[in-house]
Structure formats: C-alpha cells, structure tokens
Amino acid sequence: MKSSLLLRSIRSSFTNSTSSISTHLTRRGYGTESVPERKVAVLGAAGGIGQPLALLMKLNPLVSRLALYDIAGTPGVAADISHINSRSEVAGYMGEEQLGQALEGSDVVIIPAGVPRKPGMTRDDLFNINAGIVKSLCTAISKYCPNALVNMISNPVNSTVPIAAEVFKKAGTYDEKKLFGVTTLDVVRAKTFYAGKGKIPVADVNVPVVGGHAGITILPLFSQATPKSNLSDEEIVALTKRTQDGGTEVVEAKAGKGSATLSMAYAGAIFADACLKGLNGVSDVVECSFVQSSITELPFFASKVKLGKNGVEEVLGLGPLSDYERQGLELLIPELKASIEKGVKFANQN
Ligand SMILES: NC(=O)c1ccc[n+]([C@@H]2O[C@H](COP(=O)([O-])OP(=O)(O)OC[C@H]3O[C@@H](n4cnc5c(N)ncnc54)[C@H](O)[C@@H]3O)[C@@H](O)[C@H]2O)c1
Ligand SMILES: O=C(O)C[C@H](O)C(=O)O
C-alpha cells in the first residue's frame, strides 16, 4: 500500500517539468524500454473528481494514452490537460456516440461518473440515478474494452460494483479479477487520522480498511495499523467513527456543493497507479479494494488485494481482528449484503 512512489512521481513531474520524458522515466527507476504502452480512460472526466483525476493520470509516467470521456465539457478539459509536458497523449470524447472510441484499447477504465451527495443524503440515495449511469457505461465497456481493469468510483460503490458484475456476466465478459470498487479514500483517511492522533509521521503509516464503502460497512483495522501506537480503546473507537463518517464530514463542509473530489482524485490516482504497476508485472503491489471475494459469506468484500498482470492476483484474508473489529464485522454484514443484493436485482430487472 505504498503511495510514496506516485507522490515522488508527481513531485518530480513538477520539479522537472522541463526534463525529457525519458529522463523522467529513468529517474523513476523503470528505464524507458521497460515501460509498456498503457491506455487509461476516465468516464466522468469533466466532473469534480474527473478533472483532478485526469490531471494526476496525466502526470503518471505509466500512462501513454489518456482518454477523457463525459456527457459534456471534455473538449475543454482535454485541451487544457494536453498542454502538460508529460508522457501521455490526451484526447477528449463527448456524448454517447464517442464513448466507444474513448474506451477502445483501454487497459484501465476509471469511473467517477454520476451524481454526488448533498448534506442529509446517504450514498444509497444516489442509487436511482447512478445505477443507470453505471449500467450503461459498463455495457459499453463489455463491448469496446472487455479486458480492461475497471476502477469503480461512482456511489453507492457497495451496489455499483455488483451492478457492473451483472452487466458483464450478461454480456459474457465478466472476469472477477478485473472489477474493483475503489475504497482507497477510506485507507487514505484512516492513515491520515491515525497518524494525526498517534503523532506518527503519516508517510510511514499503513492501515487496512475492509468491508465496503458506506457508513458502518467501512471497517478500518487499526489493530493492524503500522507503526504501532499506544492509542486507547476510546481513541480507536473515535478514529473508526471518523473514518466511517469521513465522506459525510466533507459533504457537510462543502454545504451542498458536492462531496470529496480532490482527496478522491488523489485516492483514485493511487489505485489506478497500483493497477498499472500490477499489469506491468511489478511485484508485491497490494491495495485494499471492494472485489469479488470468498473471505466472508458475502460475494463482494473489500480487503487487501494483491494486483498482478491480470488484475486481482490474490484476495488476502482479514488477518487477526480485535474484539471491537470482530463486532464491527458482524454489524456490517447485513447492510452490505442488502446493498449488494439491491445492485444485483437492479441489473437483472432493468
Ligand atoms: N468511491 C469513493 O470513495 C468516492 C469518493 C467521492 C465521490 N464518489 C462518487 O463519485 C461520483 C462522482 O462525484 P463528483 O463529485 O465527481 O460528481 P460531479 O457531479 O462533480 O461529476 C460527475 C460527472 O459525471 C458526469 N456524468 C454524468 N452522467 C454521465 C454518463 N452517463 N457518462 C459519463 N459521464 C457522466 C457528469 O457530467 C459530471 O461531469 C459520485 O457518485 C460520488 O458519490 C465516490
Ligand atoms: O461521501 C460521499 O458521498 C463521497 C465518497 O463516498 C466519500 O467517501 O467521500
């Protein structure tokens, strides 16, 4: 779960903005010859997450082609980002008739398309609009780039991932190794809050977050956090609650202007970078993600996942849990089960 490489890459993109791309890649230790061509498509690229995520993917030297798709606004975003002197070629695609072109040849498709929450709403309140959006985008993915790794950001992730799986199954293209619900923001938050409370340098911190991506289904495993700290049980409970409510904290602070976009773009870029590294054969790439899973009774579950050349290489187990975490796990199962079933039902009824 190391995000430091991406951070270093972004920093060096700024500080070495005039250096050639080959110097840039060599500095990252990859050597130009060994970096394969990779196309990344962002669907919803003109949105609050989409724009900064597109920027971060433009700064990622593992990307050679960047396709920016949205129902509106992508020509401007693409023109703007395309002037940045980094490796990838950028193209904007707008409207359904250009979706196929945007997707064709993609290795990774990132989906931050759909409506965000306003204060007072749950992520599930977004279901009615976002389920249909995700369904139609996944139908196009199964047609134009069935082998791509799909990084689902659109909420409610606990339901949109099962919807995507059902769409792919119907199209005969489902590969459970290639579908990911992006829960990296929960990990990013858990790391930040833990480091702050424990007064530990945040760059050294790792915290697995398991379960799903909504309220109590977000279960940070602070008992497994490294480095160890001497936080009290009360402090762990408070950190858990803050991580579970992190999205709501941002929604309320934005007061009607949407939900997390900048931290989500950062988290989405970390996760896509991990997928690209896995595809490129980098070893020991591990991130938490909401994937098809058999580590609990539920068909989808977020846990540490090892990424490889075909996507998921291994879904890692939960490891030892504290009593508090075991209780949290029991509590989250019925809610997560219902959200998964809601997604499956939608995909099969509509
Ligand atoms: N997984 C997470 O951790 C996480 C974190 C933050 C936000 N989100 C979710 O991400 C989604 C996007 O959030 P945002 O703040 O960027 O919203 P936003 O409204 O700013 O942007 C969404 C974009 O999606 C586009 N869009 C709508 N329908 C589309 C379609 N059919 N095809 C392509 N693009 C389409 C819109 O035009 C818009 O540009 C929301 O559902 C939000 O809840 C998830
Ligand atoms: O909270 C939201 O609605 C957006 C996102 O899921 C988040 O965790 O920030």
UniProtKB/TrEMBL annotation:
<keyword id="KW-0816">Tricarboxylic acid cycle</keyword>
<feature type="active site" description="Proton acceptor">
    <location>
        <position position="213"/>
    </location>
</feature>
<feature type="binding site">
    <location>
        <position position="117"/>
    </location>
    <ligand>
        <name>substrate</name>
    </ligand>
</feature>
<keyword id="KW-0809">Transit peptide</keyword>
<feature type="binding site">
    <location>
        <begin position="153"/>
        <end position="155"/>
    </location>
    <ligand>
        <name>NAD(+)</name>
    </ligand>
</feature>
<comment type="similarity">
    <text>Belongs to the LDH/MDH superfamily. MDH type 1 family.</text>
</comment>
<dbReference type="InterPro" id="IPR015955">
    <property type="entry name" value="Lactate_DH/Glyco_Ohase_4_C"/>
</dbReference>
<dbReference type="GO" id="GO:0030060">
    <property type="term" value="F:L-malate dehydrogenase (NAD+) activity"/>
</dbReference>
<feature type="binding site">
    <location>
        <position position="70"/>
    </location>
    <ligand>
        <name>NAD(+)</name>
    </ligand>
</feature>
<dbReference type="InterPro" id="IPR010097">
    <property type="entry name" value="Malate_DH_type1"/>
</dbReference>
<feature type="domain" description="Lactate/malate dehydrogenase N-terminal">
    <location>
        <begin position="39"/>
        <end position="181"/>
    </location>
</feature>
<feature type="binding site">
    <location>
        <position position="123"/>
    </location>
    <ligand>
        <name>substrate</name>
    </ligand>
</feature>
<dbReference type="InterPro" id="IPR001252">
    <property type="entry name" value="Malate_DH_AS"/>
</dbReference>
<dbReference type="GO" id="GO:0006099">
    <property type="term" value="P:tricarboxylic acid cycle"/>
</dbReference>
<feature type="binding site">
    <location>
        <begin position="44"/>
        <end position="50"/>
    </location>
    <ligand>
        <name>NAD(+)</name>
    </ligand>
</feature>
<dbReference type="InterPro" id="IPR001236">
    <property type="entry name" value="Lactate/malate_DH_N"/>
</dbReference>
<comment type="subunit">
    <text>Homodimer.</text>
</comment>
<keyword id="KW-0520">NAD</keyword>
<protein>
    <recommendedName>
        <fullName>Malate dehydrogenase</fullName>
        <ecNumber>1.1.1.37</ecNumber>
    </recommendedName>
</protein>
<feature type="binding site">
    <location>
        <position position="264"/>
    </location>
    <ligand>
        <name>NAD(+)</name>
    </ligand>
</feature>
<dbReference type="GO" id="GO:0005759">
    <property type="term" value="C:mitochondrial matrix"/>
</dbReference>
<dbReference type="InterPro" id="IPR022383">
    <property type="entry name" value="Lactate/malate_DH_C"/>
</dbReference>
<dbReference type="Pfam" id="PF00056">
    <property type="entry name" value="Ldh_1_N"/>
</dbReference>
<keyword id="KW-0560">Oxidoreductase</keyword>
<feature type="binding site">
    <location>
        <position position="189"/>
    </location>
    <ligand>
        <name>substrate</name>
    </ligand>
</feature>
<keyword id="KW-0496">Mitochondrion</keyword>
<feature type="domain" description="Lactate/malate dehydrogenase C-terminal">
    <location>
        <begin position="183"/>
        <end position="346"/>
    </location>
</feature>
<feature type="binding site">
    <location>
        <position position="155"/>
    </location>
    <ligand>
        <name>substrate</name>
    </ligand>
</feature>
<feature type="binding site">
    <location>
        <position position="130"/>
    </location>
    <ligand>
        <name>NAD(+)</name>
    </ligand>
</feature>
<dbReference type="InterPro" id="IPR036291">
    <property type="entry name" value="NAD(P)-bd_dom_sf"/>
</dbReference>
<dbReference type="GO" id="GO:0006108">
    <property type="term" value="P:malate metabolic process"/>
</dbReference>
<dbReference type="Pfam" id="PF02866">
    <property type="entry name" value="Ldh_1_C"/>
</dbReference>
<dbReference type="InterPro" id="IPR001557">
    <property type="entry name" value="L-lactate/malate_DH"/>
</dbReference>
